[in-house]
């Protein structure tokens, strides 16, 4: 004879946040730029020779971590600088 049913709560699963590969590459680019510029925001450095793709650089700009100087010429002939809200900045909340 069944009197009633009881509910056994399922364990709460921890959600794992999977990052897009482009975001990971952009963050890595920002750390490389941080090392190159000595961690100073708005210190310009030539992109040529850093070995980063245009997609990676664009994502870092899109996130507000990096700004580019100049809009003309080849993309890798441009200069980039960290912003105050880059992931390498102290106390950054990204």
Topology:
Elements: H1 21-37, E1 45-46, H2 54-62, E2 66-69, E3 79-82
Antiparallel strand pairs: 1-3, 2-3
Helix pairs in contact: 1-2
Could you describe the 3D structure shown?
The protein is α+β, with helices and mostly antiparallel strands and 94 residues long. The chain has a domain at 21-82: Arc Repressor Mutant, subunit A (Orthogonal Bundle), CATH 1.10.10. It is 28% helix and 11% strand. It contains two helices and three strands. Strands 1-3-2 form a three-stranded antiparallel β-sheet. Helix 1 (21-37) crosses helix 2 (54-62). The longest helix is centred in the first third of the chain and has 17 residues, at 21-37. The protein starts with 20 loop residues before the first helix and ends in a 12-residue tail after the last strand.
Q: What keyword list fits this structure?
A:
single chain; 94 residues; alpha+beta; Arc Repressor Mutant, subunit A; 28% helix
Short description:
By secondary structure, this protein is α+β, with helices and mostly antiparallel strands. It has two helices and three strands; from the N terminus they run H-E-H-E-E.
CATH topology of the domain at 21-82: Arc Repressor Mutant, subunit A
Order of helices and strands: HEHEE
- pLDDT averaged over residues: 79
- Strand content is 5-15%
- Cα-atom Rg, whole angstroms? 21 Å
Instruction: Label the structural class.
Output: alpha+beta
Report low-confidence residues grouped into runs of 5 or more. 90-94
Helix content range: 25-40%
Number of strands: 3
Top CATH class of the domain at 21-82: Mainly Alpha
Number of helices: 2
End-to-end separation: 57 Å
Taking the sheet with the most strands, its summary is: 3 strands, antiparallel
**How are strands sequenced across the largest beta sheet?**
1-3-2
Any idea what the shape is? elongated
